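Example: Flippase.
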Amino acid sequence: MIARYFLKLRVLIYSLSARPYLRSLLVNAGWLMADRLLRVLLGVFIGAWVARYLGPENYGELAYVVAFLSIFQALSALSLEGVLVRDVAQGIDRAGRLIGTALYLRLAASVFACVAACVIVYLLRPGDTRCLLMVGMLGIGMLFQSTDVIEIWLQSQMKGGLSVTAKALAYSFASVVKVFLIVYEAPVWAFAFVLLLDAILAAWALVFAYQRYPTPSYWLWDDLVARSMLREAFPFLLASMAMVALARIDQVLLRQLSGDHALGVYSTALPFSSVSQMLAVAAFVSLLPRISSLRLSDELMYFRRLQQCLALFLWAGVLIAGIVFLLADQFLSILLGEAYADSVSILKIHVFSNIFYFLGLARNLATVADRRPLIALWSALTGLMVNVVALLILVPRFGGVGAAWAAVVASACSSFLVQSLLDPNVFRMQLRAFNLLRLLKA
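Written out as structure tokens, the predicted fold is:
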């Protein structure tokens, strides 16, 4: 019986790849997956080496800076990605105005976010010049990340190979620099500088890639486009900041309640839990243009594809969580050593939050295509409130393990349970996604 289901799955994959309209989609998704896979491999192994070199205390400080800046990075991005991908896919003749306006908006937001981050960290940690220096370097990096609008253009036109190659070269070079920093025993702030270097190189590489496949028209600023983008993206921006806070508040509160050492141990487990999220995001970005187009052209096929995406994302999360749970002991002991022995139990718990993260990401395909940003906002706010309450209850007693349990509970609430109130139709589709046999018979 199992063999028959696997045969049906192979037939399903073959039939999808044989269709002309999906072939370019699959190729583009393949490029995105390759980029994320490269980042996963380099991030896991180089990141583990960095953690062993810095030790829990210094690594915890670096993790705190990255977590703190993440909220401001969400602000600098303005959550224009989903709106921009959809609008470019639905009207390529307006690409120049759309991309140009989005770039100027992101540059302005990045300047504001950088200044705000530096001011706030100065007020929170007066006299901590090293922390302020690292926040400043990462803040400057947000300016260069504004060029990510180029990647959105290339992805919307199924030219993902160009942007993937460009950014992969930049990321690989930055990873090599990290190795040299370890060999020559560089201080912790130097590793923050590498993150800035990666942003600079990636921006330059994207500009180079864009020259090979530019938009049909020049980039221009358009007041009407800017107002329309900001008006529609604002709820997504609030949701994005809430989601980033949801993902990072555990590290911030853990440091406040338990110190840098506990945060360092906890933070080393997170990359092994969240690396698969990069692959899921790559799939989301690749699928969004097609799902958005179907929403306008074929409603029946739209719901059919959405149901398939919900099931595929959910069971991919289950599979990855199971594999990580089984291999966590051996893998972390080899890569991190005895100093991070407590990371194993944290990872085994935290990885199950990915199941609901994947399911929520697939749900966001409908949220963007249906232009219902308030669903994303209320989902994220619900998860954030649940997470904060759970952290305050569990962290003082259980430390990093308590933070891991809080992440699982918050993810389940924000990505799944709350949908029963916000969008009952999608919630029913999420429930059907748990039926693996339905997916194999599709």
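The chain is about 90% helix and 0% strand.
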